Amino acid sequence: MEQYVIKGGVPLNGEVSIGGAKNAALGILAAAIMTDETVTIENVPNVRDTRVLLQAIEGIGAKVKYVYNNTVQINGGSICDINVDYEYIKKIRASYYLLGALLGKYKRSQVALPGGCNIGSRPIDQHIKGFKALGAEVEIEHGKISTKAEHLVGGHVYFDVVTVGATINLMLAACLAEGDTILENAAKEPHIVDVANFLNAMGANIKGAGTDVIRIKGVSKLHGTTYSIIPDQIEAGTFMFASAATCGDVVVRDVIPKHLESLSAKLIEVGCEVIEGDDWVRVISKGNLKSTNVKTLPYPGFPTDMQPQMAVVLALAHGTSMVTESIFENRFKYVDELNRMGCHIKVEGNTAYIEGVDKITGAQMSAPDLRAGAALVIAALSADGISEIEDIEYIQRGYEDFEGKLRGLGAMIERVDSEREALKARLKIG
């Protein structure tokens, strides 16, 4: 079992480059099969989730070619199956985007009910409601969700809750439906805009992405294109918060600063200096962090995917802070691990009450999910002594070469896959 061995107490310093947005890539890779022509996608993050989705795409007959490490060519002209295998799907949640992509292109699809991180219930009722509004029949049986339509026609969908997944899935299906579709109360995240821009580059007609009303005029077919994925705001935020927690000075490059505004604002509130350039953000932390309150909200609010990392920063700040989670109900599973390091965090309902401490100490920990795992790494980097973090496959789902990028900033971190290697790593960095 792979794990990280980390010696903390070293301020992070230097520059780090951010890769493509995982959450945008998953929607874009699924959309790429909707044409029979070749699509070239650049800045694809080489992480476990994207690799698994590409395996699923190959599994239904599409051709996938890695041109470089972060550039992929996909041709959906050879797809021979609309049934996506469960072995792939149970590993990642966003494989359900293949439902909308296949339904749009072939007017039918079948995908096993999805997996992913266990951070709370993420029902697909809004996806189903949307597909039905476009004229599709939807059935769930034997652990699979199936859709089919004689004719896919435009419809009016009002989402009961703001949902990124259903917004993307309905954009995929609706762009090849007959007539006009309106999606109201749509999600506004940057990766929604990126998927819409990609579809438009393939010949779709989508307007309003980034607002809560998206209007789609159906087209008869899509064509090939070359497209580059936007930078990952959550990867960028993770390094920004790592700088804050370790009293570091880090320049985060290849980003879109506007996407990071809610994060930068909180870092300034807690006492960090944040300097923005055209495509970079510098975070300087001199310690003496101050407490603040945070509530997760849909974009442009504070992202739920940055909540665990924020909690680590606040655990090292002077005073009492509150972190309220309004998106997922099961996102505080990392708190017990942090408390074992000496943090003072108490969870009541959907709120964590954090009493800041002067220092924390290394411990043996286990990553409960992707973002919580990244938060535990930040905590280990800021702690006295050596920490070991298990179940890092969660972290590898969303961060490309995480330990390599951290080492480039001066972190003492090793990835090992045996007790013998762990012992050597402890001796090396201890």
Automatic annotation (TrEMBL):
Q: What is its main location?
A: cytoplasm
Q: Where does phosphoenolpyruvate bind?
A: K22, N23
Q: Which InterPro entries match?
A: Enolpyruvate_Tfrase_dom (IPR001986), Enolpyruvate_Tfrase_sf (IPR036968), MurA_subfamily (IPR050068), RNA3'P_cycl/enolpyr_Trfase_a/b (IPR013792), UDP_GlcNAc_COvinyl_MurA (IPR005750)
Molecular function per GO: UDP-N-acetylglucosamine 1-carboxyvinyltransferase activity
Bilayer-spanning residue ranges? none
The EC number on file is 2.5.1.7
Q: In which pathway does it act?
A: Cell wall biogenesis; peptidoglycan biosynthesis
Q: In which residues is UDP-N-acetyl-alpha-D-glucosamine bound?
A: R93, R122, P123, I124, D125, Q126, D305, I327
UniProt KW keywords: Cell cycle, Cell division, Cell shape, Cell wall biogenesis/degradation, Cytoplasm, Peptidoglycan synthesis, Pyruvate, Transferase
Q: Which reaction does it catalyse?
A: phosphoenolpyruvate + UDP-N-acetyl-alpha-D-glucosamine = UDP-N-acetyl-3-O-(1-carboxyvinyl)-alpha-D-glucosamine + phosphate
User: Which HAMAP family does the UniProt entry name for this protein?
Assistant: MurA (MF_00111)
The UniProt entry's sequence similarity note says: Belongs to the EPSP synthase family. MurA subfamily.
What is the protein name for this chain?
Answer: UDP-N-acetylglucosamine 1-carboxyvinyltransferase
Gene that encodes it: murA
